[in-house]
Amino acid sequence: MRVTVADVQKMKQNGERIAMITAYDCSSALIAERAGVPVLLVGDSLGMVMLGHSTTLPVTLDDMERHAAAVMRVSQKALVVADLPFLSYATIEDAVSSARRLMQSSGVQAVKLEGGKSITPQIRRLVDCGVPVMGHLGLTPQSQHQIGLRVQARRAEEARQLIEDALAVEAAGAFALVLEVVPAPLAAAVSERVSIPVIGIGAGAGCDGQVQVWHDLLGLFECRPPRHAKRFADIGAAMEQAVRAYADDVHSGSFPTDAQSSTMNPDELAAALASLDHKDH
Ligand code: KIV
User: Residue 222 contacts by C-beta under 8 Å, 6 or more apart in sequence?
Assistant: First the structure.
């Protein structure tokens, strides 16, 4: 049975911390599910980690649909949430049309939208249409040119605004909220004030759950991961070592061996070559 929005909300009520991780394709989805992660996020961070862009802004609905569909083809247990990409929910009509496309083409159960009070009309309409919505406040990367890539809401006025935004997103019907790169005590205060689960990334241990980006957690990039990321393994180095060993074996001729090759009856090959020779004369 697949995890539902109600299950995730029950986890908060029961004081059970929620693990969420990004997944962008079938291998990440399969591994995350096997590891027992209850919520997968097809994040628009795929623009950077899968498509090589420097921000999430170039990510299109087509990109999101392709990756979300790959995750959904293999996923069986987790609640799968997908990001609506940059400017695909600027109006209520856009939000409905984008959510319809993403959910119908991929089968994801919920969508995530970045923003506070200003996008509550879109959240409310989607929820009225039966679409579970996850909010996203704090460092919202789709607005990075406006707000910068830095810790958000450190000052009293911004912190008050963030709490008001969280309450507004909850009141609009969102089932959960991501809080990205905000001071830990503020994130804890938000988590206490809203009844929906707050999933933090760079927001401290006082949130109801945590989300991490697949590539940061597994060390798939050589560059220094962001401060909020914890590298739980260095899979990138292990992969590089394996690929180097493969290339070395090709160069030396020690790969492939008979174990990776198939045979045929020598008479069949001789007959084929003879008939070619015959044709040539
Ligand atoms: O796109 C993404 O991966 C996200 C997480 C960082 C929350 O939105």
Answer: 236
**Rounded to the nearest whole angstrom, what is the distance from the C-alpha of residue 88 to the centroid of ligand 1?**
16
Phi, psi dihedral angles at 81 (to 5 degrees): -115, 140
The closest of 192, 105, 196, 185 to 151, measured between CA atoms, is 185
Predicted pLDDT of residue 277:
79
Instruction: Decide: helix, strand or coil at residue 189.
Output: helix
The dihedral region occupied by 52, where left means phi > 0, alpha psi between -120 and 50, and beta the remainder, is: left
**CA 203 – CA 120 distance, rounded (Å):** 23
What is the rounded CA–CA span in Å between residue 261 and residue 247? 18
Closest by Cα among 150, 152, 44 to 89: 44
Residue 45: CB within 6 Å of ligand 1?
yes
Closest ligand 1 atom number to CA of residue 56: 1
Instruction: Output the pLDDT for position 218.
Output: 96
In this prediction, the residues of the chain whose per-residue pLDDT falls under 50 are none
Compute the mean pLDDT over every residue in the chain, rounded to the nearest whole number.
96
H helix runs in 107-234, sequence order? 120-128, 144-147, 156-171, 184-193, 214-218
What does pTM read for this prediction?
0.95
Looking at this protein, which amino acid is placed at residue 20? M
Q: Active-site residue numbers?
A: 180
pLDDT of residue 82: 98
Q: What is the reported pLDDT for 227?
A: 86
pLDDT of residue 281: 64
Query: Using an 8 Å Cβ cutoff, are 30 and 20 in contact?
Result: no
